[in-house]
Amino acid sequence: MGEFKVHRVRFFNYVPSGIRCVAYNNQSNRLAVSRTDGTVEIYNLSANYFQEKFFPGHESRATEALCWAEGQRLFSAGLNGEIMEYDLQALNIKYAMDAFGGPIWSMAASPSGSQLLVGCEDGSVKLFQITPDKIQFERNFDRQKSRILSLSWHPSGTHIAAGSIDYISVFDVKSGSAVHKMIVDRQYMGVSKRKCIVWGVAFLSDGTIISVDSAGKVQFWDSATGTLVKSHLIANADVQSIAVADQEDSFVVGTAEGTVFHFQLVPVTSNSSEKQWVRTKPFQHHTHDVRTVAHSPTALISGGTDTHLVFRPLMEKVQVKNYDAALRKITFPHRCLISCSKKRQLLLFQFAHHLELWRLGSTVATGKNGDTLPLSKNADHLLHLKTKGPENIICSCISPCGSWIAYSTVSRFFLYRLNYEHDNISLKRVSKMPAFLRSALQILFSEDSTKLFVASNQGALHIVQLSGGSFKHLHAFQPQSGTVEAMCLLAVSPDGNWLAASGTSAGVHVYNVKQLKLHCTVPAYNFPVTAMAIAPNTNNLVIAHSDQQVFEYSIPDKQYTDWSRTVQKQGFHHLWLQRDTPITHISFHPKRPMHILLHDAYMFCIIDKSLPLPNDKTLLYNPFPPTNESDVVRRRTAHAFKISKIYKPLLFMDLLDERTLVAVERPLDDIIAQLPPPIKKKKFGT
Amino acid sequence: MVQLRPRASRAPASAEAMVDEGQLASEEEEAEHGLLLGQPSSGAAAEPLEEDEEGDDELDDEAPEELTFASAQAEAREEEWRVRETVRRDKTLLKEKRKRREELFIEQKKRKLLPDTILEKLTTASQTNIKKSPGKVKEVNLQKKNEDCEKGNDSKKVKVQKVQSVSQNKSYLAVRLKDQDLRDSRQQAAQAFIHNSLYGPGTNRTTVNKFLSLANKRLPVKRAAVQFLNNAWGIQKKQNAKRFKRRWMVRKMKTKK
């Protein structure tokens, strides 16, 4: 494999934003997640829990509620008082309608999917009609005294439960008047000065209302009489979220201590028909508040302030007990936030509102395997570039020569020219960018830094010629057949002839850059692409999919390579297919065409195409065997996949030159250290 | 209290006075007349008293001045007229002042507003009532907001009527900034509510350091806290020390040479 000096980089201060709401869609098995900075991400649960789409955030958007309506329409409402609809095909926001009730705290779609109910700051509950292209205000319900923090429809659509501060109201939908007002105790069996905030309500079809509040109680109410049936005290802190399964035989609640409780409807005795709600399982997968939970038919989904998204499949619901029934925790992003300029050893880090440019340190010492070499020159923070405006940065890139930086937000595209003169750096912005370049999903520079490739969210692919300090728009490839569905990835060949783009559902398109036309299309695969790269001399396109399959396609021959066919015939090792995190970056060695370097969050792997492939019986992860082993043994156990788990969690790994690697790590403790304060836990002896 | 003695000259005089000035039946006149009635009466009543008293005094033998009523009346009338004049002058002065101030305000307001041409265009555009797609309006709104940010806050806030459509050659949307302020303040209040209910007083929160160090405290071999060092302590002192060290090294090098 060779010896490499590895730059271990830990100064990328990446802190994801906390999860505020999740919404599960049963028909398409997708999960919409909204974070505190306004980003909305869509995860495809059937494609190995891959984040396939996202809508960038905005500073003024503080989303408080997210819901799916009929026909796969996604709506969100927030503290800026607006209801927004997201266009999942065009990957932009269709419209934002002001509800004129002040900040919106809660939103619920009717069981039929044609009406939308919104609870506002001024205590009003507003009903909206969902029309094919927009939503329309229908009427207001009776106005209540305090803000409506949670809403729930009765499955038949006739009644609504609204949770507010210190009380719950039940409304009749037809008349809009409040039928019952149930006062919630401020403390379980006691008195308290702090108001009781009802964080979540759920309305079951037999008329039971389940409420969770800030005193740590889960209460069952009867909506026909407006009385309290049962009260459970489950936590010392707030219980902040509740989600009921479709069959109404189980529900899940999340608390501020990070615990998620599962309640189930079980018969009182083994053969009686009477059933009662029993708290069955506690799960402690979070350290901070669990602000939102969802219940899919087979799993419990929770997310909160500690930024993890946790999927806990329920063993009794899972059909086949294989690796699918394991806990899944999504912590790290599914796309690459770092770009690298190999010539000047620069790294560009993308944050939500700014970019950072660092120069790697250098060392003159040498050592043997496993040594840590002292730095003669420290890493240098060269540039901190803040974006103008409240929008988040969607994507960014630095050119391989290090003289151009480009990034894009929803409304603007920025291109900067960098000049280096002995350790100093000066920045100059290229003004008057054309309007069609904004809202780019992916930006890539060619190897010689003369061309800029931009994939916009309308599906078009633009080629811009860069020269000196100016640019010129060369060509725009219009979207081919197939809708723009998945996130777009770009890859350019080092000789500058070929450009691969994976933005559509029709497969990966390969364009000839010199002749400006479509060359071929890699056949479509039903799992989204997570990483792509084109090898230097052979012009083989290597594609990694979210189900951990790796394909190699030869662009000049317009077919899969022999090696790829062999791998597909034999299949990957089962441990390789059971990895949790997607491959986010692929790169190649300039002098060794048989090597492919790829990495995901917990391992990096060099695939040596000349060695034999492992079958299911061999050990996949075999570190370098000790030298006292015989040569024969070493040759027998050697296989094509050389995996190393030394550096984890990895956000980025690339080959700088023949003997140097750079690995950007982000230890989980460093992320947790910058999160908001958690609830105090009292442990005996401390 | 002065005692009013009935006097023969008085009654016809009062009647004359009433008749003469009956045309000017203003409250002021009556009040003044009343005053006149009051004052001279008091004065007149006072005089004979004084006269009487003085009359008692043998030293002063002079006869009192013969003050005809006509002269007194004339004096009173002049007095009245003077007072009226001053009031009128004051009123006109105030009026003028007010007028000038109004004009000044109108001018200032005109200066603050957009030039007439743009206002005309806006009003005509709203009348035609073109319906643009909501997406475009939203993006235009964003553009306008960007322009606003770039313009800076040196000009005072402009209050323009909200216009639904967009003018043809220029792409901007005029919004009332008063609405935006209200919206921002409500959003701030809502965020403050959430923050208070989750992290405010009464909630049982602890720092991340303490939370993660709980495990360290219960180990068989106790370890230090997760964030043991406080790197943010004494930043200024450390910077000064670094600078001093650099300067000292340079000085040392110089003296060595």
From TrEMBL, chain A:
One of its GO terms (biological process) is maturation of SSU-rRNA from tricistronic rRNA transcript (SSU-rRNA, 5.8S rRNA, LSU-rRNA). It is found in: Chromosome; Nucleus, Nucleolus. One of its GO terms (cellular component) is chromosome. InterPro entries: UTP4, WD40/YVTN_repeat-like_dom_sf, WD40_repeat_dom_sf, WD40_rpt. Keywords: Chromosome, Isopeptide bond, Nucleus, Phosphoprotein, Repeat, Ribosome biogenesis, rRNA processing, Transcription, Transcription regulation, Ubl conjugation, WD repeat. SUPFAM superfamilies: DPP6 N-terminal domain-like, WD40 repeat-like. Pfam families: WD40. The keyword Transcription applies. GO terms for molecular function: RNA binding. The keyword Transcription applies. Ribosome biogenesis factor. Involved in nucleolar processing of pre-18S ribosomal RNA. Part of the small subunit (SSU) processome, first precursor of the small eukaryotic ribosomal subunit. During the assembly of the SSU processome in the nucleolus, many ribosome biogenesis factors, an RNA chaperone and ribosomal proteins associate with the nascent pre-rRNA and work in concert to generate RNA folding, modifications, rearrangements and cleavage as well as targeted d Involved in SSU pre-rRNA processing at sites A', A0, 1 and 2b. Interacts with HIVEP1 Interacts with NOL11. Part of the small subunit (SSU) processome, composed of more than 70 proteins and the RNA chaperone small nucleolar RNA (snoRNA) U3. May be a component of the proposed t-UTP subcomplex of the ribosomal small subunit (SSU) processome containing at least UTP4, WDR43, HEATR1, UTP15, WDR75. This is U3 small nucleolar RNA-associated protein 4 homolog. The gene is UTP4.
UniProtKB/TrEMBL annotation, chain B:
InterPro entries: NOL7_C. Pfam families: NUC129. Residues 1-85 are annotated as: Disordered. It comes from the Eukaryota. One of its GO terms (cellular component) is nucleolus. Residues 48-65 have a biased composition (Acidic residues). Residues 172-234 form the U3 small nucleolar RNA-associated protein NOL7 C-terminal domain. Residues 1-25, 34-47 have a biased composition (Low complexity). This is U3 small nucleolar RNA-associated protein NOL7 C-terminal domain-containing protein. It comes from Pan troglodytes.
